[in-house]
Amino acid sequence: MKILSSILFILFFFTIPVKSEEKKCAEMKKLSKEFIKCSTINIKEKTIVKVSDLKKNTSNKTKKIKIKLSETKNKITNKFKKKD
């Protein structure tokens, strides 16, 4: 069963169509203005996507940390209130 599931996973993983939105720069001559411009645009677009993902993930983690800290604070304060 494990072998069958691993084979299905591999087939599924490698048959997923890749949606690449980057421009293909391979047809251009390397070290030409067009190639460098195309490469720069691709790098810039990927960087913008990565930075936005990083910002979103960081803000989500910060919110989770704040919630956990407030919960632990409440637990601690409740323990001290019960003792009084």
What does this structure look like?
By secondary structure, this protein is mainly alpha-helical. It has a domain at 32-84. Helix content is 77%, strand content 0%. The protein is built from two helices and no strands. The longest helix is centred in the C-terminal third of the chain and has 51 residues, at 33-83. The N and C termini lie far apart (60 Å).
Summarize the structure.
With 84 residues, the chain is mostly helical.
Average pLDDT taken over every residue: 79
Relative helix content: over 70%
What percentage of the residues does DSSP assign to strands (E)?
Answer: under 5%
Outline the low-pLDDT stretches. Answer: none
The backbone outline, from C-alpha atoms, is flat
Write the element-wise H/E pattern from the N-terminal end onward. HH
SS summary, helix count: 2
List keywords for this structure.
2 helices, 77% helix, 84 residues
List the helices and strands and how they pair.
Elements: H1 2-15, H2 33-83
